[in-house]
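Case study B.
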Amino acid sequence: MEIIKVSNLHTAFGDNIVHNDISFSVNEGEIFGVLGGSGSGKSVLVKQIVMLNQIQKGKIEIFNKDISKLKIDDLETLKLNFSYLFQFGALYSFLNVIENISVMLKEYTNLPNDLIEKIAYTNLDIVGLPKHTAKLYPSELSGGMKKRVALARSLAMQPKLLFLDEPTSGLDPASTQSINELLLYLKKSLNITTVIITHDLETIKTVLDRFIIIKKQIIFDGNIEEAMKSKDKFIQDFLTHKKAD
Ligand SMILES: Nc1ncnc2c1ncn2[C@@H]1O[C@H](COP(=O)(O)OP(=O)(O)OP(=O)(O)O)[C@@H](O)[C@H]1O
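Model:
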């Protein structure tokens, strides 16, 4: 089942044409990648899907609903179904780990505090962080741990759709691998549909079910095996990192 359907999207800022007739869809339960060189419009595209940026021309449907036609109340309800980790890992420095994980639950639900704490501890465990990290502050965490806390905070709202912008950026290879393993574990255990913007070759090869590569238009839509077989030089260079940035 298609969860997101983007049709004939055009986006331009002045003379700068960023998206020229972009169409693709994301299926339920898959980990879908949005790839492309720097400035190719990945962030703008994802922000349009999560309704942080306006759609200029074209259509985006989520759960079969045209998001530009929804009334404000229906939009707010729809937004509760997804989490967007913009600048993945940005935590509140003055809150400890468990308070950071609880933030959204406190803001968007009327659940009692003891239940919020229980949910927060469950999500701490889901992302593989031991209980004793609960009272630590962000300054006391490694980069990989911060990303896990940010992920736990998003998962606490039980989203059906998760958007991750560069989930492994700034991490060493070992931490990157463990975040990639976590993403695969989450897919298996929670069946969330995930859209990831990434440049990381390991993530592209091991985590993504399917991906698009954009360069004004969609120049590739498929899985890693299909991409590897492509004769297109840009795609080959992209997958060997000659053109990923
Ligand atoms: N509000 C805006 N006003 C004008 N131009 C914008 C605006 N937002 C984005 N752009 C332009 O749109 C293009 C795409 O930007 P975007 O941030 O989506 O790129 P990206 O693919 O995510 O790049 P990167 O990998 O470097 O993060 C860029 O040329 C950028 O300068």
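The chain has nine helices and ten strands. The remaining cases will be described in the next quarterly update.
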